[in-house]
Amino acid sequence: MKIYFKNSFTLYLLIFGINFTFNSCTEESQSDQTVKNNTSVIWNDLIIGSKNQSDEYQLGRPMAVRTDKDGNIYIADKASLTIKIFDSNGRYKKSIGGRGRGPGEFQEFSVNLMGITPDGHFIFLDRGKLQFTILSKNGEFIKSYPYNFIDQVYPSSISYFNDQIIGLYVDTVNDPTEEKISEFERPLFHIYSPDFQERRGSFLLYDKLGHDNLFVFSNLVYQPGSFAISKSADKQRLVYSPGIYDGKLYEFVHTNETGWRFEKALEGFKSKIGSYERYSHESDYERNTKLGIPGLRKIYYGTNRPHTGRVISMDAGIYYLDNEELVHFYIIWPKDDNIKPDSKNSLDLYFQIFDSNGDLKKTSYVTSIERSKIPKIPLVNWKDSENNFYLINLPESDIPTVQRFSIEM
Q1: SS3 of 169, please?
Q2: How many CB atoms lie within 10 A of CB 290?
Q3: In the predicted structure, residue 6 carries a pLDDT above the cut 50
Q4: Contact yes or no for 250/260 (Cβ under 8 A)
Q5: Which residue in 310, 392, 383 sits closest to 349, CA to CA?
């Protein structure tokens, strides 16, 4: 396997030509460093937002990337509330949207929710207007749907499937249709009508992920993870990667109009340093904050005493290929990292490939990103029809960029 990657912060070309292939039965014998040492070919392809580009290329807070059949690139920028459009070579074309209360304008983007409708339009959740807004790719206002307060929570991502919408919803509010639901009994996925007004089904309760604490739950509210739906007509599958990645992905099979049955857990690479840490005392959190430990979280939820800890391994995006193989990206802060109090810590990005049966084929290190805070979005944010991937790079001490790379099979 070869990886093609545009990387503004890597100043050298690594060519090892080493393929790293293994299955789940040998996972325990592999260390994190072994995976990191097996790096394929990396070189420049495309970047948007670099310092040497003009103002129209600069990004404030990119939250989502999408492409169309012609290869045009659309980047939703939460800072300007615009969608910047570039051609397939990364040349700026125009911007649509903008801040305002009129048709086609926005008050606030909901993080990462940039769906594509069956008609090829874009749909956003405007949390300022409390409505779902649909725009054409030219910026024309198509329609809007009101946010349904009676039976809905905010989705983090959506996908259209069989004239319905499947949404990944994790929220701290109780389900309004019930008197009281514990956090552990709340479903992560809901199925809605195309206008978001009718909930038609739900699946995957939080406790099925195997975590029995509110630290993990509250982190899923912050970064729920991502999911992918296969295109196979014979066996329609959905695979979910939780925001905190602990080596397992969750596969569901479509059974009827609104039904999804849990099929199995896909066993991926599991870091030997774990996926998260919970602190028993708030003093542990304060001490590690002073040391500049990356990935720290302090959350007040369900109690006056905060939940504190550190997230180590996270989802970074999941996608089906045309051959029904699955590509999953994940990121890890090394536990023995050389901690830098100035926030210039290294967040390592990896990918792994599962075959059409859900068995792990190989995994590889991609690159390192300068970051100390938990990203709210899957960093590998999109895959286009040519199997190019788009990384939203959000370093804390530098400007954000969108970078394109590909994996050659």
Answers
A1: strand
A2: 9
A3: no
A4: no
A5: 392
Residue 1 is predicted with a pLDDT of 39
Mean pLDDT of the chain: 84
- Are 328 and 313 a contacting pair, CB within 8 Å? no
pLDDT at position 272, please? 85
Work out the number of other CB atoms within 10 angstroms of the CB of residue 361.
Answer: 15
Give residue 250's domain range: 1-44+223-275+312-409
Q: Are 73 and 79 in contact (CB under 8 A)?
A: no
Q: Which two structure tokens, joined as six digits, stand for 259?
A: 């039904």
Q: How far apart are the first and last CA of the chain?
A: 5
For residue 62, tell me if it sits in a domain.
no
338 has a pLDDT exceeding 70: no
Q: With contact defined as beta carbons under 8 Å apart, do 27 and 21 qualify?
A: no
Chain-centroid distance, C-alpha 265: 19
Return the ∠ at Cα 8 (arms to 72 and 44), rounded to 5°. 60
Which pLDDT belongs to residue 409?
61
H-run or E-run covering 161: strand 155-161
pTM over the 0.85 mark: yes
Length of the chain: 409
Model confidence at 236: pLDDT above 60: yes
3-class DSSP state for residue 287? helix
Residue 126: strand pairing partners:
109, 131
The position carrying tokens 């919803």 is: 169
Q: Where are the alpha helices (DSSP H) in 20-106?
A: 32-37
Residue 67 located in a structural domain: no
Give pLDDT, residue 148: 78
DSSP-based three-state secondary structure for 157: strand
Q: Which long-range contacts (CB under 8 A, 24 or more apart) does 298-305 make?
A: 299/214, 299/215, 299/218, 299/219, 299/222, 301/172, 301/214, 301/217, 301/218, 302/183, 302/214
Tell me how far apart the alpha carbons of residues 407 and 274 are, in angstroms, rounded to a whole number: 27
Rounded-to-integer distance, Cα 399 and Cα 402, Å = 10
Is residue 78, in this structure, part of any structural domain at all?
no
Q: How much is the pLDDT for 303?
A: 72
Task: Write the DSSP assignment of 178-223 as a string of letters.
Answer: SS---GGG-EEEEEE-TTS--EEEEEEEGGGGS--SHHHHHHHHH-
Tally of domains within the chain: 1
**Is 364 domain-assigned?**
yes
